[in-house]
Amino acid sequence: MFTGIVQGVATIAEVIKAPGLNTLVVRFPEAKVQGVTIGASVAINGTCLTVTRQDGDLLYFDAMQETLRLTTLGDLAEGDSVNFERAARIGDEIGGHLLSGHVHTTAVLAEIIRTENNVTLWFEVPESWMKYVFPKGYIAINGASLTIGEVTGNRFNVHLIPETLRATTFGTAEQGQSVNIEIDSQTQAIVDTLARLGYDRPAPAL
């Protein structure tokens, strides 16, 4: 499990491609790899991956074909920056919301609005996932736990403070890029339960 509180930004040092598998070699800030063991879980841009090898400040992760298909990890190249979070431990503070690291879908950064001390990002999501997106609800974008602002059509926005921009890759985000989305599990459970009970259907005509 993860908390959605990004612990830093790492750099893709190398991508080793094989049929149906990419090995991501990721360079971490030195202090952030202390105590890492083979088999540990680390979220890379919100995707839960397993450490397969360590070489100093380099950690190796295998991303299988299904992961590459469902996330943006297949687009990563040498030199790219990524958000990371090591798995939560019992007793850790939950500053964001509980995440599994299982990406549901991807979204496109459609618009960036910059004002003094704030940045608003608008994302476009596949229509089928918008039923889980509500104003003031939780969502994880590239592994960062964020609060949804406005929702309209198949778009929603988030408002970012300078600290979030500094501590994550959102500070260098560009319009048109794709991001990983993990829907809040509690919201998904409630919406799906109500749908099974028939509460998602239009009211009958009188």
TrEMBL record:
<dbReference type="InterPro" id="IPR023366">
    <property type="entry name" value="ATP_synth_asu-like_sf"/>
</dbReference>
<feature type="repeat" description="Lumazine-binding">
    <location>
        <begin position="98"/>
        <end position="194"/>
    </location>
</feature>
<feature type="domain" description="Lumazine-binding">
    <location>
        <begin position="98"/>
        <end position="194"/>
    </location>
</feature>
<comment type="pathway">
    <text>Cofactor biosynthesis; riboflavin biosynthesis; riboflavin from 2-hydroxy-3-oxobutyl phosphate and 5-amino-6-(D-ribitylamino)uracil: step 2/2.</text>
</comment>
<dbReference type="InterPro" id="IPR001783">
    <property type="entry name" value="Lumazine-bd"/>
</dbReference>
<feature type="domain" description="Lumazine-binding">
    <location>
        <begin position="1"/>
        <end position="97"/>
    </location>
</feature>
<dbReference type="InterPro" id="IPR026017">
    <property type="entry name" value="Lumazine-bd_dom"/>
</dbReference>
<feature type="repeat" description="Lumazine-binding">
    <location>
        <begin position="1"/>
        <end position="97"/>
    </location>
</feature>
<dbReference type="Pfam" id="PF00677">
    <property type="entry name" value="Lum_binding"/>
</dbReference>
<comment type="function">
    <text>Catalyzes the dismutation of two molecules of 6,7-dimethyl-8-ribityllumazine, resulting in the formation of riboflavin and 5-amino-6-(D-ribitylamino)uracil.</text>
</comment>
<dbReference type="GO" id="GO:0009231">
    <property type="term" value="P:riboflavin biosynthetic process"/>
</dbReference>
<keyword id="KW-0808">Transferase</keyword>
<keyword id="KW-0677">Repeat</keyword>
<dbReference type="GO" id="GO:0004746">
    <property type="term" value="F:riboflavin synthase activity"/>
</dbReference>
<dbReference type="InterPro" id="IPR017938">
    <property type="entry name" value="Riboflavin_synthase-like_b-brl"/>
</dbReference>
<keyword id="KW-0686">Riboflavin biosynthesis</keyword>
<protein>
    <recommendedName>
        <fullName>Riboflavin synthase</fullName>
        <ecNumber>2.5.1.9</ecNumber>
    </recommendedName>
</protein>
